[in-house]
Specification:
homodimer; Arc Repressor Mutant, subunit A; DNA-binding transcription factor activity (chains A, B); 8 helices; three-stranded antiparallel β-sheet; MarR/SlyA-like (chains A, B); 3 strands; DNA-binding
Chain lengths: 138, 138
DNA sequence: GGAGATAGTTGTAGTGCTATAACTGTTATA
DNA sequence: TATAACAGTTATAGCACTACAACTATCTCC
């Protein structure tokens, strides 16, 4: 029984558990009534206010499209743009209370562990937690 | 230390390991020189020949778009359409040897466990294999 | 001070995919 | 037999997002 085989099986289970998350994406889209990248923008901004260029980087998209996304979120009252006092070229995008609420909803949907995982016995969960906790953070 | 917390942490690690798979999608797209759904179609057909309608169902897309995808794959010599002998309305789509090769490439890319997982000690891998093997297949 | 780089906006074009309609040929069922 | 349903194709429109160009205002650095 090779470790490569075991790792392959382990990874297959993980992929199943997470990729059923595809309908979590759709769930987020439905719950928030916006495209998924907009929810990702909200979640990024819920962490801290950032510049437009930094937001584009975090969303792995380009500046013009980021402008479009933020325009829409601002129109929905979920974010505000403010002038950066340190550099007059720059805008800081901040999340509003309503935006934070939406971001929290999205986060809850995305991060909820599958019921079959939660249903594992405590000693199994403890072992998984311990082992997976060893993995490197890249 | 609640089980819900442990499950949340466990799931977060899984999500990280799998969602870095987003660049696996891109890797597949680059390696095969086609859109991702085309690679998914090839992988479905590599299992067994199926009807167009069944293929659309498996791809979770609609019949007109499935026609477009299969048209392209057929033009590339990766699949062939044949008349279903049991029902003259139906076509069976079969993969060609070249298509099978492309599907195998995609599968290899997608299913390869992350190196940090493979690098875990054997007893940890065995434990993960055993525990995750208990999860229900939905 | 001036040249070059950067921030964010405005604009255009294209791709992948969803959604829908309509059609011809075929099958199933009342 | 007639009607309804189904298979697959052709066609159209729209959305989300990528990619790129160009612009004005501002900043950095030689």
């Amino acid at each position: 029984m090779s470790e490569q085989d075991a790792a392959g099986r382990i990874y297959a289970v993980m992929r199943r558990l997470v990729l059923e998350a595809d309908d979590r994406k759709q769930h987020v889209v439905d719950a928030l009534g916006m495209s998924y990248i907009r929810s990702r923008a909200l979640r990024a901004l819920a962490v801290e206010p950032i510049r437009m260029t930094e937001l584009a980087t975090r969303l792995v998209t380009d500046k013009p499209y980021t402008t479009l996304v933020v325009d829409d979120l601002e129109a929905r009252g979920l974010v505000v743009r403010e002038q950066d006092p340190d550099d007059r070229r720059c805008k800081i995008v901040k999340i509003t209370p309503a935006g934070r609420e939406a971001a929290d909803t999205a986060t809850r949907i995305i991060t909820a562990p599958p019921t079959e995982l939660v249903a594992l016995p405590p000693e199994d969960l403890e072992a998984l937690d311990r082992i997976l906790g060893k993995l490197q953070h890249p």
